[in-house]
Amino acid sequence: MSGYIASLVSVIGINMILALSLNIITGFCGQVSLGHAAFYGIGAYTAAYLSKLGVPLALTLPAGAAMAGLIGIVVGLTSLRVRHDFLAVTTMGIGFVFLGFVRKQKWLGAELGISGIPAPGLDPLVYALLIVAIAGLIIVFCVWTKRSWMGFAFDAVADDEDAARTVGINVPVYKLTAFGIGTALAGLAGGLYVYFARIILPDTFDFVQSIAILTMVVIGGSGSVWGVVASTIALTLLPEVSRAASDYRLLIFGAMLILVMRFSPGGLAAWARRYLARRQAA
Amino acid sequence: MYFVELAVKGLVYGCMYAMMAVGLTLVYGLLRILHIAHAGVFALGAFVAVIVANTTGSLALGFVLATAVSAILGVAIYRFAYQPLLAHPPFVPMIVSIGIFIVLQEGFRMVFGAYGIAFDTNPWYVSTVELAGVRLNQVEVAMVIASIVLLVGFGLFASLTRAGIGWRATVTDPQMATSFGVDPIRVRYLNFIFGSGLAGIAGALVGLLNNYVEPTMGGLVSYKALAIIVLGGLGSVRGTLIASLILGVVESYGTIYLADVFDRDAIGFLFLIVVLMMRPQGLLGRG
Amino acid sequence: MQKSLVAAALAAGLLFAGSAAAQIKIGFHAPQSGPAAADGKSSTIGAEIARDWINEKGGVLGQKIELVIYDDQNKPDQAVPIANKLIGQDKVVATVSGSYSAPTRAAAAVFQTAGIPYFSAYGVHPDITSGGNFAFRGVTLGPPQGKGAAKFIADKWPKAKVSVLTMNNDFGQSIADGFKEEAPKRGLTLIKEYTFGLGERQFGPIIASVKNDNPDVIYAIGYYFVGGPLVAQLRAGGLKQPIVAAQAFDSMKLMEIAKDAAEGVFVVGGMDRQRATPPDLQPFETEFKKRAGYDAEAVAANCYSAVMLMADAIKRAGSTDPKKIREALAATKDFPMLTGKLGYFNSVGEMYMPLEVTVVKGGTFQGAAVIDDTAILAPPGK
To answer: For each of chain B's 287 residues, which pLDDT tens digit applies?
Structure first.
């Protein structure tokens, strides 16, 4: 039974890191990214490739994060050229280009992906706790960021880029920072995933995965740290506790997207805030 | 002949993309929303066509109903999902659109079965027409003709009729148009009826062309259509048409010559990214 | 009155407890939702038919079989928790995977550590069995299938020039690799290889290129939903060469889509639907059609046979001890699967089975040849 709980906790942890990382780019800094799974993939492929060469986990994880962050900054350069809808489609394109490239490279396993990845060398429960610890650190980082000067700058950029520029905020630098941090963390999640599943195939990092991550952010409340944390846990656990939710999983997914955005575009966080405000007023 | 054939096939696919993309660009031009659920409208058209054709034996009836049902779905999506959210930033209706697409796709799978449906009698798709050494089957020809007719028709409508001019005015300057007495709601309905009906016809034609209608058929075409409308300059119908044809041809050659390096589906997006970095407003967009 | 009620309740309770305890649990996972749901449904129904028929005949070792079924959505991050759940919570004695390669490979690692026999009904990734000796596979790997195709083509059309059309996924690539390795050894010339994605339905550029190449034989590797349109478009494009296809073409849907264009297409690794052996093939097809509403797919047949084989192994083991079941599985000899006779398992759990070649005739798959060549088909040991 503990094996089951450990594996479930691991999945929640990885999803949470992914959602929080996208939250930094899209939620904090307002840059729509529909291709986030590509960075998850870059981190995963980097870590997997190195791990098969014998590099230990303590090095492959940072390597994956670094690679994803580096490429993330390059991709972030596109956000300096295009905005909003154009950016949305461009980032979607990045996701497809990553996939299309990776599935053709023989040295990355092409269609067969990378398998036979060594075990993390840790007890599954310990590994799960490691993931949770990392996720916890990231939560702390996000909360700190929100209150920091960087968070203020992100917010200004998200709100109105041109106005932010006029008050002296170096918009390009902050955009690239957001992309760099967000994608690096996604790459870290990728590395953690590699040791969990021990096989990666190109299709794991497709557009559907990007949308899944976006969903967790959006339902939680784009920009809200605790909202995203809550929605990730809820969305991952729901199919486990409800058989009906499991069978109609995707339908419920889509329905939640529609209902949440239709009636509470700020996500669960906004709904919670309104609820608490009503309670206080009453 | 070989290279000509590649180009001709590319143009045919371009027409297919155009029929999808025009609907998307119409919605964007009017409402600034990325109507991702359009893929579901496309697939619904295909399902209606195949089921009606297989049950009644009449392909024509299938097409008529496909157009009608798709148009209705498109308008319903506007009325219940987009209209209430117009005050919010465009991010919000786009997410709702994604949700609608997911629900539609799953819905198709549950209602029509996870395995796709083929047309029982598909009289056109095996018999072919030979034009200057290039073999095209009749459905491909029908697709080219349909897209030309419909888009030229729309162009005439937009420049010559009262309603069409009103539509164009609303896209360019909504407030001015309203002050001249153009009803914005009617314009929007017209927009969705035409764009969605077009997608429904496209879906039926593609279903006929492949002789296979499946729940996920909207996805890939839709993503490419999104790339196309951005490439063509969001909101520009002419730009969309040109971009569709270019993408069709680029993909056609890319499939053969870039196959070792890139997946076919990635080629279109790669092209898009390269162009956007050089011209952020798209090929024909106005900055 | 109360006493007899209590007695009745006790008796009922004992009966329930009794029957609950007397059940052998076998785990089963398949992609029941999402894009792969079609195969997930077929797999599940196939497995359920096996379970029901086994239980109708009295079960195994005097107990009924219970299939503990989960939906893995074709994702490794779902398969790993499911594997853990099956082991820790449901306490299965063995598991069958009715799913694709990635989730199967991920779950295999978990089952190996726990010492539970694990059977991949149709997942073809080579690494599924490389994690240890508790993983077995009931379908021929890609490379031997490709080699078998090379032999079939070379025997029928000596010294032919071949164009290869292959789908972009692990199955397609591994079959193509096997073919490309064996073909030159048999005097075949490979003109060019073209690839396409799983979402592709329009093959205009590829067909124009193949026409340009003018091969003697076309070898197509893909699932029916790409194969159907591909074959139809090849014929419509004026290409009259014989088409040899890989196992993935095998589905009655192929003929629904391609109609007459499918006539004469050979499928290496297909399943002859008309066969009288094994005796449960025809009844299986009928029962499957009744339950599912469509004709049986190969994945369904594979899962049916997987469950049958597992039950047989338990019977031979004479116990529900997972280690003994594993040994019985490994010792399997000449077991009749619906797809052919499973000769034996090699040291890494790969099976030897002659490759059946079918041909589409009169709108159905008919037997054309059988390739029984240990040199080609012998599963690779690692």
So the answer is: 678 888 888 898 899 899 989 888 888 888 888 899 999 999 999 999 999 999 998 889 999 999 999 999 999 999 999 999 988 887 889 899 999 999 999 999 889 887 889 998 887 766 677 777 777 778 888 888 988 898 888 888 888 888 788 877 887 777 888 888 888 888 889 889 999 999 999 999 999 888 899 998 988 888 888 888 888 876 778 888 888 999 899 888 888 888 777 777 788 888 888 888 888 777 766 54
Q: Which residue type does A62 have?
A: P
More confident residue, A86 or C174: C174
Cβ contact, residue pair C32, A247, below 8 Å? yes
Contact A260, A230 (CB under 8 A): no
Report whether B203 contacts B46 (CB < 8 A). Answer: yes
Who contacts A248 (Cβ-Cβ below 8 Å, separation ≥6)? B106, C33
Residue C202 to residue B6, Cβ atoms within 8 A: no
Range of the domain at B91: 2-278
Mutate to test the interface with B, among A23, A97, A99 (most CBs of B within 10 A): A97
Note whether residue B149 is domain-resident: yes
Going by C-alpha positions, the residue among A41, A13, A38, A22 that lies closest to residue A232 is A13
Split into its structural domains, chain B has a count of 1
Strand C355-361, strand C364-371: pairing: antiparallel
Preceding omega of C143 cis (within 30 degrees of 0): no
Q: In this predicted model, what pLDDT tens digit does every residue of C289-347 receive, in sequence order? A: 999 999 998 999 999 999 999 999 999 999 999 999 999 999 999 999 999 999 999 99
The percent of chain C in helix, strand and coil, each rounded to the nearest 5, is: 50, 20, 30
The answer to whether position B143 is within a domain reads: yes
Tell me: pLDDT of C5 over 70. Answer: no
Cβ contacts of C317 within 8 Å, gap of 6 or more: C324, C325, C327, C328
pLDDT at C6 over 70: no
Which own/partner pairs from C54-60 qualify as long-range (CB within 8 Å, at least 24 positions apart)? C54/C307, C54/C308, C54/C311, C59/C24, C60/C24, C60/C311, C60/C314, C60/C315
Asked if residue B287 belongs to a domain, the reply is: no
- Written as six digits, the tokens of B287 are 């900055």
**Is B263 in Cβ contact with A265 (below 8 Å)?**
no
Q: Is residue C295 within 8 angstroms of chain B, CB to CB?
A: no
Contacts of B106 in chain A (CB under 8 A): 248, 250-251, 254
Give me the CATH number covering residue B241. 1.10.3470
Domain boundaries, chain A: 2-206
Query: Is A111 an 8 Å CB contact of chain C?
Result: yes
Partners of B261 on chain A (C-beta within 8 Å) are: 101, 104
Nearest CB partner across the interface for B125, out of C37, C168, C236: C236
Q: Walk me through the domains of chain C, giving residue ranges and CATH numbers.
A: 2-140+277-349 (3.40.50.2300), 142-268+357-377 (3.40.50.2300)
Q: Is B284 inside a domain boundary?
A: no
The answer to whether the Cα torsion of C78, C82, C88, C93 is positive or negative is negative
Phi, psi angles (nearest 5°) of residue C371: -100, 115
